[in-house]
Write a structure and sequence with these properties.
The structure is a single chain. This protein has 128 residues and is an all-beta fold. The chain has one domain. The chain has no helices and twelve strands. The protein has strands spanning 5-11, 23-30, 33-36, 39-43, 53-57, 61-62, 70-74, 84-88, 93-94, 100-101, 103-107, 119-123. It has a four-stranded antiparallel sheet, with no helix packed on it. Strands 4-5 form a two-stranded antiparallel ribbon. Strand 9 and strand 10 (100-101) form a beta hairpin. It comes from Siminovitchia terrae. This is YmaF family protein.
Length: 128
């Protein structure tokens, strides 16, 4: 099976042919469908006397087909620690004027001087 992929690569200007280096690849389409992502942000539940803020961008997914997005971010540093947030959004929810958004929810990683986790949930930004 052959899948057409388009995108672009960013080359680091300080790398040269003789040294080890890497490039960043940004995909713009998958199998002929444009890719998109969503912003997400919020505040965790209040546990052990504090809460955390978080923000991030989902991983890209194809437009125009049923899909979900993976996401990952790290919370703000509060009460001497931070937590990881990761998961997969729910399916797309259409908007009346076009575009869509996704619901997300989960629990953070365990951390803190009194090990604990926080719950979080929200909606992504609308797609363009």
């Amino acid at each position: 099976m052959e899948i057409t992929v388009t995108g672009f690569i960013l080359h680091s200007p300080d790398s040269n042919i003789d040294s080890e280096h890497s490039h960043t690849l940004f995909l713009t389409s998958w199998d002929g469908r444009p890719l998109h992502s969503h912003h997400f942000s919020g505040v965790t539940s209040f546990n052990v006397g504090h809460e955390h803020r978080y923000a991030g961008r989902t991983k890209p997914a194809p437009s125009g087909v049923p899909h979900r997005h993976e996401y990952f971010t790290v919370t703000s540093f509060d009460d001497g620690h931070k937590h990881e947030i990761r998961g997969v959004t729910g399916p797309e929810i259409p908007l009346p004027n076009g575009g869509h958004y996704h619901n997300f929810r989960g629990v953070t990683s365990v951390n803190g001087s009194h090990p604990h986790r926080h719950e979080y949930h929200g909606e992504t930004s609308p797609s363009d």
